[in-house]
């Protein structure tokens, strides 16, 4: 108190507003700073203009499915560690995934954004994705990347329990998550694609394609609901810019392994006769080539199923063929213009070589599919030589060549293995096809379901068969000695009983040239079980027709491989002789997803 007569001055405190976020829909950084966010996507200008890192946006509270996943600079794994659903004893597989597996599987911007960023971000809050990443991290750490390594893992081991535990936890977590109102299509699609990756790593093409088709159905349903059957998917940039390109790139494998045509067409947006625009980057050229490659494979599948080898194609199909070849030439011109006007980086240059190899492969296939004679490929020798040249550049400049990595030698991107396999099997020039085989025998990462060592074995045996009867003038195989198509099968964890099918028999077509053969399972019970036993890997050569056709159209392997010199996978190939209709059955593949009876079809009901 002041003395008498003195005055007391009361200083009023300035009135302040109670602290609260100013906006409900802004980015996370602006919410924390309590400032107005301009809500620019993917990163707001309020943050980027001041040099701050925009942490992205949370799922919108109004029930829409739009979601954006930012690039996190902080440790994703450490935040996942604090999750009560994460098992501490297995989190090192998640660390391994982050530091080794994800970079190994990422080949460019599409893959990096998904495997190294979006998946890890979503793993913080989604148990299904977290457990799926632990499972795929285990696979990458325990396998070498070869199909032999993958299939040997089908046999139960103590370490396999870790993989199966987390795979099943991921499946159960997703099944529990789907009915929740907060579950968005992004959760189902991301988990679905990781499941595809798991099954591809395991070498289970059947289960991988099951998951892949489920993902395609989700995308198809979303586009139908949006009223955009072949255009941009509204409402989610993450789906359109990240997930759709991933599913689109995997479509090449899907078409080769029997994905239904209607699902494949749901991802193809441009007719084949549309001229290509000028490319602004190699990434644009890559996307355009994926589109053309898939169109070509669908055309080849249709021609193979309906017209080849005895029925001549109608006129409109010949026009479709010319339109496809014209579109490929337009693509080539656009790529050359890009190369002449831009200084490409080392990685972009390697990608351009891979795209050129794909161009030559697609062009030769498209140009020769209407000719029933195998000699139709002979006129394309300069293209075959160019194909091998570009593949050699890719192989020799691969960052993985000669490098030992703790992760599996594996990538999802299809680059050179199918091209080299095509050159080795369809080019009858002895020098060129052997150059292709020699490149396959290098340490090339497995590309999806394409194993370079396996394809090299098939091609060497195929060359041996074809060159047993050569033209005395050209030195090339005669038309009668040339093989029409190949497929390979392997029996895993199979019983040795002579006349029974007890046990888990997994028989897979691993290298079909024509997708019409993709769903064939050979019931060799009537042919070889008594002599060779079920564990023997088998590869057949198809000549004179298609497996599964009517009487007189089928063909069967007339001799069985007795060598097990290369890891028990495709030890030998033998010439086929027409024997009429084959007896076939569908053998189930016992993957964790199938054992749980789980599919993603319920996601189709997601609103």
Automatic annotation (TrEMBL):
InterPro entries with a match to the protein in the record: Fun_TF, Transcr_Regulatory_Proteins, Zn2-C6_fun-type_DNA-bd_sf, Zn2Cys6_DnaBD
SMART domains: GAL4
Gene Ontology molecular functions: DNA binding; DNA-binding transcription factor activity, RNA polymerase II-specific; zinc ion binding
Domain Zn(2)-C6 fungal-type, residue spans: 26-54
Keywords from the named record: DNA-binding, Metal-binding, Nucleus, Transcription, Transcription regulation, Zinc
PROSITE patterns named in the record: ZN2_CY6_FUNGAL_1, ZN2_CY6_FUNGAL_2
Presence of keyword Transmembrane helix: no
Name the record gives this protein: Zn(2)-C6 fungal-type domain-containing protein
